Amino acid sequence: MLKHTYEGQDCNLARSLEVIGERWTLLIIRSALLGTSRFDGFLAHLDIARNVLSSRLARLVEQEIMERVPYQDKPVRYEYRLTPVGRDLTRAVIALMQWGDRNLPQELGPPRRADHIGCDGVVHVELHCGSCGRAVHDEEVDVRRIR
Amino acid sequence: MLKHTYEGQDCNLARSLEVIGERWTLLIIRSALLGTSRFDGFLAHLDIARNVLSSRLARLVEQEIMERVPYQDKPVRYEYRLTPVGRDLTRAVIALMQWGDRNLPQELGPPRRADHIGCDGVVHVELHCGSCGRAVHDEEVDVRRIR
DNA sequence: GGGGCGGGTTGCGTGAAGGAACCCGAGTTG
DNA sequence: CAACTCGGGTTCCTTCACGCAACCCGCCCC
């Protein structure tokens, strides 16, 4: 992302993408949701350059999407944990992953599944209406400017 | 996005991001969801460079997320329309937009809202369990490798 | 024949991504 | 006590995608 600003967009999609739309960022967050927390862990899962990982983690900490906490002294070492703001990306990450499952199919089927802990059903992402309480189809949504 | 391949990730989030994770791509799709369909329309809404828009649209057409259809001859002119695959990104786009609404607040509140056509309630994105049928919290989800 | 419109392509400069090498403090092995 | 390893980075260099401006082309209108 060159300038990583999408000025004048008047849309929070653009503001979100300024923060988490850089290359690798969402994959780092996915790895963190799956339990990775240490620098070397991300390196092992992601095949990302160390300097790039370093700058992404710094940016995520700065944005309070992750926090850097020491897990030992002598020598002091840090790990990276998602904050509630970061964990709030779960829906978006699963939505993108399942879009890939549906529309970029592979032989063998999708490699990962989102399970409901305790009940073991499969979790999927739905649009819901806050007023009538029903599930909503893609075509029934109108995203409109309100300001 | 430099190489725009995230090889060996074994995760459809990575495969999705290869297709729609480039800078501007998701904003183009959002504009298309909002009704924009012509080259100049995207230029006007997005403040994107013409060559970049051109290459993004070409890639989206190649991936069958959009289609390029003539809307007049003499001279022949084309517009770009979302395919069902593209419209299936609605959930993901709204999820990211509403993450911004919740976590990157601005004075004045969010600039756009997703309304349920006909009922006029506000649409939001939820995780739902396919087995027990209930809404699921972020912490109740376990994304696990199944292959 | 000059201008405008829609829809692009070409060429150039720059800054972010990729890769490899290096660094540092502390523990561990021989 | 030197050499090595491990976690967690930083520095440096190269390359390639982005941003910008200029140009192009077919067709219409005046």
Automatic annotation (TrEMBL), chains A, B:
InterPro entries per record: HTH_HxlR, WH-like_DNA-bd_sf, WH_DNA-bd_sf
Occurrences of domain HTH hxlR-type (ranges): 11-108
Keyword Transcription regulation (UniProt): yes
The organism's taxonomic lineage, starting at the top: Bacteria, Bacillati, Actinomycetota, Actinomycetes, Kitasatosporales
A family per Pfam: HxlR
Record keywords: DNA-binding, Transcription, Transcription regulation
UniProt keyword DNA-binding present: yes
Highest taxon listed in the record's lineage: Bacteria
The protein, known as: Winged helix-turn-helix transcriptional regulator
